Amino acid sequence: MQISEYINRNFHRVYEDTPMKDIARLFFETEDSVIPVLDREDNLRGIIRIDDFMHIFLPDYIDLIKNFDFVRSFGALEKYSFTIEELLFVAEDLMIVNPPSLEEEDSLLKGLAILYKNGLYRIPVVSGKKLIGMISLNDICRGIYENKG
Amino acid sequence: MTPLTVTAIAVFLLSYFFIITERIHRTKVAVLGAVLLVLFHVLTQAEAFRFIDFNTVGLLLGMMLLISVIKETGAFTYIAIRITKMTGGSRWKILLWFSALTAVSSALLDNVTTILLIAPITILIAEMLSISPFPFLISEILASNIGGTATLIGDPPNILIGSATEIPFVDFLIHLGPAALIILGVTLAVLGVLFRKDLRAGGKDYDSIIAEMDETKVIKNRGVLRKSILVLSLTIAGFLFHNMLGLKPATIALGGGGVLMVWSGADIEKHLREIEWTTLFFFMGLFILVGGLEKTGVLETLASSIVNLSENMPFLCLALLWVSALASSFLDNIPFVAAMIPLLMRISTTLFPNTQGLDEAAYHTYLIQQSLPLWWSLALGACLGGNGTIVGASANLVAAGFSEKTRTPLNFRNYFRYGFPLMIISIIVATLYILIRYILI
């Protein structure tokens, strides 16, 4: 069971200099959780995960606090978080470089293992350095259950 | 000087060089140094193990186990929110009460854990109220080192001193507690003046932000919390009465840690993974390194030389206090104190020889009683000295690490401006305390 049949070849992409606002629009309009970042030759340079993208709206020290159940509103922080200068970032600043990827010939089970291993819901599929599509956990789920009959 | 003595000194100095310069992790250096002493036949393996003070190691291990359960209960966040509500958002009162919480906690737990628990919630509450966390973090660092001075279990130098001298927990509290309290009061008063502009009350919306915080939601497992508080209280009671019970502090701490592990149903493997094994092995290596000097007679020679310079007790106390404070400001106070303890023992023996023919145990008690001001000077200097610079104590570095995630990070320079003068003030107060309580009266 190879992943090739289940690859989404009609995918959204951004380039290294795509500004943050355009990336945000892609995230909320497409509901994709991972967006590939390409160079001008369509080589895969990195991926942007929505988790990392949204994390920059939180203050860095938020990771230090275990429990936020006691908070209803973050007070002064509510305004600060949305005026931060990081809004000037471009894709290159936000992407994970050398991201995990699959090849067309890889099996569904390998795809599933790589997704789990990297905590991703969606992953690029490449041929050499060229990005040829994306495959998600949902696609792999479909592939496995279709093959089970 | 015999070749073995030269070897012991060389290994000791080389190891301390690497520990101080931090070129190699201190635990690796201490363990390797200890192994070298055995390889070069300065110590036999059996002698090396005998030099390890397992009371210190056990005490640290037991407290680490206890703390690993307590820190997950959410009790600190609960208290911090209650305090914030109680202060009504007054910056000065928040600083005062958070510092007091830090000091009390540091006296009972270890300083690093206290800062690990209190600093993040301080930063969050300060930012929610649109206040700079800077003054609060400075005051908490200072309070943690001052609070740690007050008890036998508060700071590693005191654990080392208490274990070596067998001075009871109560005596630490009676002798160092008042000094810590006075120094904390003076420090907070000075901070109030230094940060008077930042601490001026008020901001709009404070009341509503604070009122919205619901502290009841941070306690996830009330059963474990209740058990933790009870076991910690019993452990502290055990420390208070350990002499009467005929038990060493390590037994009390390991007992507390063990009971809480069983009673709370904690995952022992998870909690054992959280034990700071690097610290424990560092201590063991250090004991052996210093043991090499002790066996070869180096400490005896050094002690005689110091006593030959001056037998004057007030001079020795104050010199010890100030040298310990300045050294601990820039260097790790644990290796410093580990080396000073056997040296002070030798100095005490020279100053107060066994002329009455007392047996070993009785002479030890007599010796420690006679030399108490020296031990208090060492404890005050080594613990309070940690406040001098951002690298003076591990807790300072933890707070600085957290502050890097805020808009006003602590660094060597901006901490030094406040920390060093306040450390000097604390040592001046400690000098007066030693003079008034032990020398003049």
Number of domains of chain A: 1
Total separate domains of chain B:
2
Task: Specify the overall morphology of chain A.
Answer: globular
Distance between the termini of chain A: 13 Å
Q: Give me the CATH architecture of chain A, please.
A: Roll
Work out the helix count of chain A.
6
Oligomer: heterodimer
Estimated structural class of chain A: alpha/beta
CATH level 1 class label of chain A: Alpha Beta
What features would you describe in this structure?
The complex is a heterodimer of chains A (149) and B (441). Helices cover 32% and strands 20% of the residues of chain A. Chain A is of the alpha/beta class. Chain A has one domain (3-147): CBS-domain (Roll), CATH 3.10.580. In chain A, the strands form two sheets. Chain A has a four-stranded mixed sheet. A three-stranded mixed sheet of chain A has the order 5-6-7. In chain A, strand 2 and strand 3 form a beta hairpin. The mean pLDDT of chain A is 89. Chain B is mostly helical. Chain B folds into two domains: 56-273, no CATH class; 277-440, no CATH class. Helix content of chain B is 78%, strand content 0%. Chain B has 23 helices and no strands. Chain B has helices spanning 3-21, 26-39, 45-51, 54-70, 75-87, 91-108, 111-128, 134-149, 156-165, 169-194, 206-212, 222-240, 242-245, 249-264, 268-273, 277-295, 298-309, 313-330, 333-351, 360-370, 372-385, 394-403, 412-440. In chain B, helix 2 packs parallel to helix 16 (277-295) and helix 16 packs parallel to helix 19. Chain B is globular. Chain B starts with a helix and ends with a helix. The model of chain B has no long low-confidence stretch (mean pLDDT 91). At the A-B interface, loops of A face helix 7 of B.
